[in-house]
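Good morning N.,

You mentioned wanting to compare the apo and holo forms, so I went ahead and generated the holo version with D-mannose. This is what I fed in:
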Amino acid sequence: MEMTFRWFGTGFDTVTLKQIRQIPGVTGVITTLYDTEPGEVWSRDKIRALKKEVEDAGLHISGIESVNIHDAIKVGTPDRDLYIENYIKTLENLGEEDIHLVCYNFMPVFDWTRTELARVRPDGSTVLAYTQKAIDSLNPEEMFASIKGDANGAILPGWEPERMAKIKELFDMYKDVDDEKLFDNLKYFLEKIMPVCNKYDIKMAIHPDDPAWSVFGLPRIIINLENIKRMMSMVDDVHNGVTFCAGSYGTNRANDLPKMIRELKGRIHFAHVRNLKFNSDDDFEEAAHLSSDGSFDMYEIMKALYDIGFDGPIRPDHGRMIWDEVAMPGYGLYDRALGATYLNGLWEAIVKSN
Ligand code: DNO
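and this is what came out, ligand included:
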């Protein structure tokens, strides 16, 4: 396992590479070209410059999160082949630059969904939170406006204002797409990209839908073990794997996280490890990473990763906003650094007791 940290790039992230370098045990970053649009080819020059910047800071790129998928591919419109070709070119360029892990998602319209970006917890920290009641009383077109006031000026991944401005159009595009269609379109995409992934040994790691159920009536497929198994077997290649995101799969309390990890042995290429605190089955908030602050047993999650011989990157996930930090919700420095340190501590104890 390698402990890593998500970094959005200079100009987009309040956290610097120097700060990341000083978190004990963190050796790599998970990053992206944040100013590219889905469907665009990532040039080798831009990838190389990003790599150099990271390496000059004494770190390395452990993976990309995300190379986003154009809606034409998810919807399956006639122009999807063009965007798949562009995706393949981007993968080639990443492969040529020795980058071998790509996290992506196949969520329609919205990426992850939260109804609050700054819920206040008893200790005065603020966290991302979700309550189904709020979704049920909201028109999807108002979703972005309802949360953006708490974004601390940051552009949230998946919630880019240009995208949100086209929200009506987006919903319209997906009106005939159900779960089956989405599975078909994912299969079509994966079949086309597997040759280049094999050539360059690029591990594709699909991120789960968050929350792990349908929101606003949109189809959502990467939500549980059964569906992941279906996804893996429809294109049975080790490069077609998953990002095991504890906080996303964990939104559905029927998902047994350690059991899922054990069953996905060999196909988890990347792990996001964080905790959630449930107030009811459909109201949760993103607690500190520590087990006792939330509802998950973080030791059991790390132990399951250890037991399957997981050797990919792990990153702490959304952190609380603490110590008066002003940053992108979920992506400040302090609480994620505490998370990394805690997860490293669990890992060391597990290693030594085995
Ligand atoms: C939220 C993230 C997601 C994730 C994408 C992957 O904080 O976990 O935005 O990066 O879904 O494509």
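The chain has one domain: 2-353.

Happy to go through it together on a call whenever suits you.

Best,
F.
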